[in-house]
Design a protein that fits this description.
- Keywords: Lyase, Metal-binding.
- The chain is mainly α.
- It is 49% helix and 7% strand.
- The protein has a single domain, classed as L-fuculose-1-phosphate Aldolase (3-Layer(aba) Sandwich), CATH 3.40.225.10.
- It has a three-stranded mixed beta sheet, covered by helices on one side.
- Helix 1 (3-9) runs parallel beside helix 4 (84-98).
- The longest helix has 24 residues, at 53-76.
- The relative contact order is 0.18.
- The model is unreliable at 111-128 (pLDDT under 50).
């Protein structure tokens, strides 16, 4: 619906629902975090990542802005989505700016009526040792950044 989301981020995927405080949460995003740094967590909220806390925050602002525009459009009636042709034009612009970094075909937001699971996770997967270590590092860095911002 918003051209700048396609050009700037390639789309905003939605990770499937995961039970809070369980290993399901990192499993629900593990494939997506390799490809994008903006993720909506179904029935939880959103996750954004950046080189700095401010960069991650600004990406969060973009997700919230997109959600507000989508909500307002829905309240006004039928949502006008971008055509496949328009999206392809925007993707060409993105590719020229980003060397073709990850593009998301469907963000699973329901605005266009498409519902595709973009996470590709299996319910029976368990993370490898390297992935578990990565999860610990990310958690520790987030806690450190939040602690530093409060002092």
């Amino acid at each position: 619906m918003l051209p700048e989301v396609v050009v700037e981020y390639g789309g905003i995927p939605t990770a499937k629902y995961a039970t809070p405080s369980t290993e399901e949460v990192p499993l629900s995003i593990k494939d997506l975090v390799k490809k994008t740094d903006l993720i909506v967590l179904e029935r939880h909220g959103s996750l954004t990542m950046g080189k700095t806390l401010m960069e991650a925050y600004l990406k969060l602002e973009k997700i919230e802005h997109t959600a507000q525009v989508t909500l307002a459009a829905r309240q006004l009636g039928q949502v006008s989505t971008l055509s496949d042709e328009d999206i392809e034009k925007l993707r060409k612009i993105r590719r020229s700016k980003t060397d073709g970094f990850f593009e998301i075909d469907c963000v699973n937001c329901g605005a266009c009526g498409k519902t595709v699971n973009v996470s590709g996770n299996s319910d029976t997967e368990s993370p490898s040792i390297d992935e578990k270590k990565l999860i610990e590092i990310i958690r520790d860095e987030i806690q450190r950044a939040v602690s530093n911002s409060l002092t």
